[in-house]
Write a structure and sequence with these properties.
By secondary structure, this protein is α+β, with helices and mostly antiparallel strands. It has two domains: 71 residues, Helix Hairpins, CATH 1.10.287; 160 residues, Heat Shock Protein 90, CATH 3.30.565. Strands 1, 2, 3, 4, 5, 6, 7 and 8 form an eight-stranded mixed beta sheet that branches. α1 runs antiparallel to α2 and α2 runs parallel beside α5. The termini are far apart.
């Protein structure tokens, strides 16, 4: 009797021809826009209208920022793909989270959203830090880009059996019910996000990174408006007598 062969696992989305083709198309678009804006500025004479020069400079900065962002995201996908399961290592959690928040703010300098670390268990924790940082960074950047300017987004970390729950709560427009089933699809951009920077990769990147750890990611609607993204990962307290206090940064 011939044994049945188990079906092969589906390849990760970044190996799919459709994803590769879309990524190449976007890279070409951003590079072409960058080249066109540069050419206009270089060819313009001293008598060019100041408003036109200002528009071309803005287009140059925007194209450069979009190209850089896409390259960074593709680089992080490569990191997720090549890294393999990351060893658990002790991390000074509150300090490490503060670094993730600062890095996200630096990546989105034009955001008017106030991103803060609201609460975190103190002390050192063992977790798979590299892929968790990729996933958490993607979710934090997503909040900075899509939440309403002038509002506050909070990162809260709490203990759960077997690990830690990272929750990012923003006060943006939220995600319409019709868009929720495809929210983590690569290159998906909702109707309310078409005028925002990005290529629709942050949430797909976060899901790919957390999957590497065996964790899970979820979106929860927030009331009265906004979104809450939850990231659960396996973690345990490091052996340290000074880990029982809670760190609060309000």
């Amino acid at each position: 009797m011939t044994a049945r062969r188990s079906p092969a696992a589906a390849p990760p989305f970044w190996r799919e021809p459709e994803f590769i083709g879309r990524a190449v198309h976007l890279l070409k678009n951003h590079a072409t826009a960058l080249q066109a804006a540069s050419h206009l500025l270089l060819q313009s004479g001293p008598g060019i209208d100041k408003s036109a020069r200002k528009r071309w400079r803005a287009a140059l900065r925007d194209s450069g920022a979009r190209l850089t962002r896409l390259l960074d995201q593709l680089g992080q996908l490569a990191q997720v793909h090549e890294g393999g399961p990351d060893a658990f290592a002790p991390v000074p959690l509150a300090k490490w989270l503060g670094e993730q928040v600062r890095d996200a703010r630096a990546a989105e300098p034009n955001s008017r959203v106030r991103l803060t670390l609201a609460r975190s268990p103190a002390g050192a924790w063992r977790l798979s830090a590299a892929p968790v940082a990729v996933a958490l960074g993607a979710l934090l950047r997503n909040a900075l880009v899509h939440a309403t300017g002038g509002t506050r987004a909070k990162l809260t970390v709490t203990t759960r059996p077997g690990g830690l729950l990272f929750a990012i709560r923003d006060h943006g427009p939220g995600v319409p019910p019709a868009e929720r089933p495809v929210l983590f699809t690569p290159f998906f951009r909702g109707k309310g996000a078409l005028d925002r920077p990005g290529a629709g990769l942050d949430l797909a990147l976060a899901r790919a990174a957390v999957a590497q750890t065996g964790g899970r990611i979820a979106h929860r609607p927030a009331k009265p408006r906004g979104a809450r993204f939850e990231l659960f990962v396996s973690a345990s307290r490091a052996r340290n007598p000074r880990v029982n206090r809670l760190h609060t940064d309000r």
